[in-house]
């Protein structure tokens, strides 16, 4: 009985993540969530008393998955490669993880008491840029704060982009990153970083 209840709860949570990701908090319907989860409203409210409680659990789950993915990124000797991996990971999570998509959509409406995801990934971006600047990987005249502003806009853009096939998204991302590197990288006698791998020590 407990195992079946746990399966039902997880099915409801996954269905709710899809619903909130697609419709936001105001547009989400508990009836549609129950239908997606192939269960009853009674079973849903047994686990989550109302839409607010369900949204909060989806938010907590999404943030935990997001934080775990960022914490698992492997450091790189080349900080510009590390920046590429970071922003590529943000794009992948926003495109492929229903819970992360839901968190981003929930950020746009009530309840809005939780800090945005940017408060997690922006300090990581800033730290890598500071390291790149200190090691003289940035082109002379490129200030870390200017690079941070540009990369933050880039990250938000790729996270907000509509879903595309992974191969197509990867090709576009490679081309964009070549342009970014041309503007950021100091002349070290190396070509653009072209590495689609996203090394991680944790599952997302």
From TrEMBL:
This is TetR/AcrR family transcriptional regulator. It comes from the Bacteria. Coiled coil: none annotated. One of its GO terms (molecular function) is transcription cis-regulatory region binding. Residues 29-48 bind DNA. Keywords: DNA-binding, Transcription, Transcription regulation. The lineage of its organism: Bacteria, Bacillati, Actinomycetota, Actinomycetes, Kitasatosporales. Residues 6-66 form the HTH tetR-type domain.
């Amino acid at each position: 009985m407990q195992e079946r209840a746990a399966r039902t709860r997880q099915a409801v949570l996954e269905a709710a993540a899809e619903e909130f990701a697609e419709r936001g908090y105001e547009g989400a319907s508990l009836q549609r969530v129950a239908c997606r989860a192939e269960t009853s409203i009674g079973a849903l409210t047994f686990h989550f008393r109302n839409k607010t409680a369900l949204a909060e659990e989806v938010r907590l789950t999404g943030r935990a998955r997001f934080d775990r993915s960022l914490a698992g990124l492997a450091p790189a000797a080349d900080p510009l490669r590390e920046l590429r991996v970071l922003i590529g990971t943000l794009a992948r999570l926003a495109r492929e993880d229903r819970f992360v998509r839901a968190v981003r959509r929930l950020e746009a409406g009530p309840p809005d008491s939780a800090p945005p995801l940017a408060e997690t990934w922006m300090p990581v971006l800033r730290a890598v840029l500071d390291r790149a600047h200190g090691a003289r990987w940035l082109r002379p005249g490129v200030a870390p704060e200017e690079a941070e502003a540009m990369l933050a806009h880039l990250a938000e853009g790729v996270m907000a982009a509509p879903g595309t096939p992974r191969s197509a998204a990867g090709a576009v991302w490679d081309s964009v990153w070549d342009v970014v590197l041309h503007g950021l990288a100091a002349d070290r006698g190396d070509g653009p970083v072209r590495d689609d791998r996203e090394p991680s020590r944790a599952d997302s």
